[in-house]
Amino acid sequence: MLCFSENQRMELRTLSCFLLLLSVFTFADAGSIGVNYGRIANNLPPASKVVELLKSHGLNRVKVFDTDPAVLKALSGSGIKVTVDLPNELLFAAARSKSFASTWVERNVAAYYPSTQIEAIAVGNEVFVDPHNTTRYLIPAMKNIHNALFKYNFHNAIKVSSPIALSALQNSYPSSAGSFRPELVETVFRPMLDFIRQTGSFLMVNAYPFFAYESNSDVISLDYALFRENPGVVDAGNGLRYFSLFDAQIDAVFAALSALKYDDIKLVVSETGWPSKGDENEIGASMENAAAYNGNLVRRILTGGGTPLKRQADLTVYLFALFNENNKNGPTSERNYGLFYPSEVKVYDIPFTVEGLKNYHDHRSPVTGNQHMTTPVTGGGGVSKSSSGNTWCVANGDVGKEKLQAALDFACGEGGADCRSIQPGASCYDPNTLSAHASFAFNSYYQKNARAGGSCYFGGAAYVVTQPPRFGKCELPTGTGN
Question: How far apart are CA 352 and CA 35, in angstroms?
Fold first, then answer.
């Protein structure tokens, strides 16, 4: 039995109160978890049962990909916050006609709000990769939808945004070098970010570490991708150490915002997830990995702490997706992102609330649990999915000729890159430009170092790409020993 003096008891009571307050503030400042409710399936339960499913598991935020009346009516009075979507195919009409935007808001928002707690409108989805080339309609459509909210005085309560894919980044590794694709900066991102800033909204980002791991499993540790214990990856640009691929991807977006002087813009992760099943070539797609990724992500978000670059950035994250959707096209993984089967049974057991986290443990199987455990985490911090699984290192012309030349000299000198092909008369001498020659040298160094983390940085003079670059007739090779 322990005995304490009065002073010691007072100190213990003070400490206990402090710890209690600390825990309250920690969870009060933490992020929140929502779920994407996709319905590309022919075997899903009715919307009324889905709402009860959400409530029974403590899920109080949902994102839908349309404005289906049955869904919005079922959500009425539920207390669940809702993000609705204006589909890509309506962007042209919403951009061209203010009356169309006004009618759309009247029928799909005003008809249900506030009983259905619509908190945001996603105008389009991953518009920049839409094969129908709807990018030019995005900003006018967002503005027209926002202006239509004024009529009902909803403009402060309901935010307007648009989810972007990580492919909107020109560079995502290392995170500190994150930047948006140059052709989108002035035409889309600056006006979009100005709009978001003026309206108090946020940028929606779809982030899938699974794609990066699947395409670069030779250099990305599975533990790093699944929020498990790992040595971490040090960002050569800012010295921060990352222990999860998710954080690295999100910080690449924050860095891209910072590069354009939009440090004040908040992010919402509008989609992220991991498939429980995949085709033979879909490396990492398994039930155990999906459970680990989503379960550890929930814990990561609900216990707060922000990201290494943005410590105060407590994120709202929408898991993808609520159900396995049997009518989706594409590889097997596309039909197996669900947290629940259509029968409403969990695909795997993970919590969605702080209360549920108390008894949660990430269970590894003895067969698969040690994948990459002894392999150093060497790179791929935010590389988007590529068709081949290969990556290349190219020059960043924005740093200026002096810095680019210094980096080229280093690569061909003490860096040990094979620069014979860019000498006069050699196969890659033409085009005779600093950018082309530097790209060849940087890529040689990068591939020679097995695409290791930080080997494609050169003080910001280079970045990783996931599509094979070409300079004239010269293609940059992959593999070692260029």
Answer: 10
Q: Where are the alpha helices (DSSP H) in 57-156?
A: 69-74, 91-96, 98-105, 138-150
Residue whose token pair is 């035409």: 187
DSSP character at residue 482: -
Question: In the numeric block, which tokens belong to residue 30?
Answer: 């933490």
CA distance 479 to 477: 7
Give the C-alpha separation, 38 to 328, whole Å: 10
Determine the Cα–Cα distance for residues 162 and 95; give it in Å rounded to an integer.
14
Cα 454 to chain centroid, rounded: 21
Q: Which amino acid is at 88?
A: N
**Tens digits of residue pLDDT in 370-381:** 333 323 333 333
Contact 147, 200 (CB under 8 A): no
What whole-number distance in Å separates Cα of residue 397 and Cα of residue 387?
25
Residue 275 contacts residue 337 (beta carbons within 8 Å): yes
**CA gap 45, 65 in Å, rounded:** 17
Question: Would the pTM of this model clear 0.70, i.e. be above it?
Answer: yes
Among the ranges given (206-215, 219-228, 377-386, 448-457), the one the predictor scored with the smallest mean pLDDT: 377-386
- 251 phi and psi angles, rounded to 5 deg: -70, -25
Under 8 Å between Cβ of 447 and 478: yes
Rounded CA separation 432/441 (Å): 13
Instruction: Write the single-letter amino acid at 291.
Output: A
User: CATH 3.20.20.80 in the chain, residues?
Assistant: 24-59+162-357
Instruction: Give CA angle at 127 (126, 130), nearest 5°.
Output: 100
Secondary structure (DSSP) of 131-178: TT--GGGHHHHHHHHHHHHHTTT-TTTSEEE-EEEGGGEEE-SSGGG-
State the burial class of residue 184 (Cβ atoms within 10 Å of its Cβ: 0-12, 13-18, 19+): middle
The set of catalytic residues is 126, 271
For residue 235, what are its two tokens? Answer: 């960002």
In the chain, what is the greatest distance between 2 CA atoms, to the nearest angstrom? 87
Residue 230 neighbours by CB under 8 Å, 6+ apart: 221, 223, 224, 243, 377
The total number of residues written for the chain in this structure: 482
Q: Identify the bridge partners of residue 470 per DSSP, sorted by sequence position.
A: 475
Whether 73 contacts 49, CB under 8 Å: no
In the chain, the amino acid numbered 150 is F
Identify the CATH assignment for 24-59+162-357 out of 3.40.50.720, 3.40.30.10, 3.20.20.80, 3.10.450.50: 3.20.20.80
* pLDDT tens digit sequence for 76-125: 999 999 999 999 999 999 999 999 999 999 999 999 999 999 999 999 99
Residue 248 · residue 233 · CB < 8 Å: yes
Which 3 state secondary structure label does DSSP give 366? coil
